[in-house]
Amino acid sequence: MPETQAEQDAVSPLAIPRAVERAAGDVVHQAFERLLSSDLRVTNAAEAKRLLSDHEDTEEMTDGIQRFVGIATPLVRIAFRGARFTRVPWVLVASSTVSLGVTVRNGVRELRAIAALLAHRFEKETGAPPDPALLRKLALELYLKPRRTPDVSGLRLPLARLARRWIVSGALGRNTRGKTEKALDAAERLDIASLQRSTSTSLPSGRPDVSETGGTRRRDG
User: What angle do the packed helices 90-126 and 159-172 form, to 10 degrees?
Assistant: First the structure.
């Protein structure tokens, strides 16, 4: 579903503080650690969509998600102002804070479904699991921009864009499932062999991941 004008107006001016970006990064890394230590297997996009539909609202409210919601809540009012609401009743902000928590919980589930499908495709087509840093990068890029070919020339994570998506979607009650389904379709079409070649000379093991605004996080391995 195309973005509404209100959402477009809210997204453009919404600057993401470094603390919010770091909190989003913590949510992502916790989610992927759980995925990589689980037995979740998704073999195709249709299976992933069914999984998301059959297990609505089952994502637990982890400490990382709670911390992100707490830090990001003040930005909800800014998102409303960006969307040209002249007055923002406090009760609307309060209800949107709850909505933000739901959005992030759903977002984590959606990211894990995308990543599980990508992991299956890597294992099937290359005989080995993907590098965890590459898996995070691909899943986030597809989640945020499903119509674009993921840029994996570097492995820095688009954490500010992710935080902005969650905050604006939560503030405006925007359902992200449609975009996630497009991301799953895109993951199923990805040229895995080409991606593997293009990342063979990426950051060597032990180098840190760098977020889009310069924060660092140690890579796995």
Answer: 130
Going from the C-alpha of 111 to that of each of 32, 103, 197, 202, the distances in angstroms are 9, 12, 24, 23
Split into its structural domains, the chain has a count of 1
End-to-end CA distance of the chain: 38
Residue 104 lies in a domain: yes
Question: Is residue 18, in this structure, part of any structural domain at all?
Answer: yes
149 φ/ψ angles, rounded to the nearest 5 degrees: -70, 125
CA 57 to mean position of chain CA atoms: 17
Residue 88 in tokens:
């923002």
- What backbone torsions phi and psi does residue 2 show, to the nearest 5 degrees? -65, 155
**pLDDT over 80 at 221, yes or no:** no
pTM of the entire predicted model: 0.80
User: What percentage of the chain exceeds 70 in pLDDT?
Assistant: 72
Range(s) of the domain holding residue 53 = 5-200+207-215
Instruction: Classify residue 169: in a domain, yes or no.
Output: yes
